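Changelog-adjacent note: as of this version, every example in the card shows the full chain rather than a window. The one below runs 300 residues end to end.
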Amino acid sequence: MRIALTGATGLIGSALGRDLRADGHEVVRFVRREPAAPDEARWDPARGYVDPAGLAGCGAVVHLAGAGVGDHRWTDAYKREIRDSRVKGTDTMARAVAAMAEPPGAFVCGSAIGYYGDTGDRAVDESAPAGSGFLPEVCVAWEAAAAPARDAGVRTVFARTGLVVAAEGGAWGKLFPIFKAGVGGRLGNGRQYWSHISMHDEIAALRWLVDNPALSGPVNLTAPEPLTNREVTAAMGRVLHRPALFAVPAPALRAALGAFAQDVLGSQRVLPARLLESGFVFRHPGIEESIRAALQARPS
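Full-length structure tokens:
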């Protein structure tokens, strides 16, 4: 299959592209600069432009582009970048897909479990409403921006991804060096739930969304058993054979991270109900096996 991919240089996008190509799929990587390789095509979300030749013949579009939530301190300017990179990018790609004479069979759009906000100890699945705050508002607008593709009859799926366990980036990319140094530990009181997913299962789930015609709308990409931050950090210590005795107090996190600290300290107990109902099987349902898989993927 010929598959269009945005966000192809990101943590998840680069892994997805490699996996698809390894199975013989043709991947067209959409880039904001001038294309420099035969498998690249140009798009410019700020101008609402997508090269139609890049989309031609694609059986699916996987749209993962967006500024990293944890990459910078949340200034007002960076919060605008987080929102605009998702909403404008999704609107641009959705309109391009809707305008195609022969549209793809699937438009898989990245989203996040930030949609639900802080759920405390309450477990939520895809039937739960949006929460309140910056990230839920971004996720609602992000998903709404895909309306042109959905309204044109293209099967549209929102991959609400949790915390991806990977050594090379994301939240875990920051945690691994700390724990390897023997100074890791819980964040805040450690009672907040972290809904994680291994990189292998994240990629397998995205491909499942592309291939499964029965799935549309929101689908949570998280492991079946969310754990508290205290449980996650204890597992990190066991797998890495390092103590997990230290703790980062909530005030210190707020001083270091600003507004983003609220989401680090917040609790999201998110269940992958629709993924499980559709027959998807996790290779790494538990946190320890997810951590070991991440370490094997990138030898230390």
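Structural remarks: The chain has twelve helices and 16 strands.
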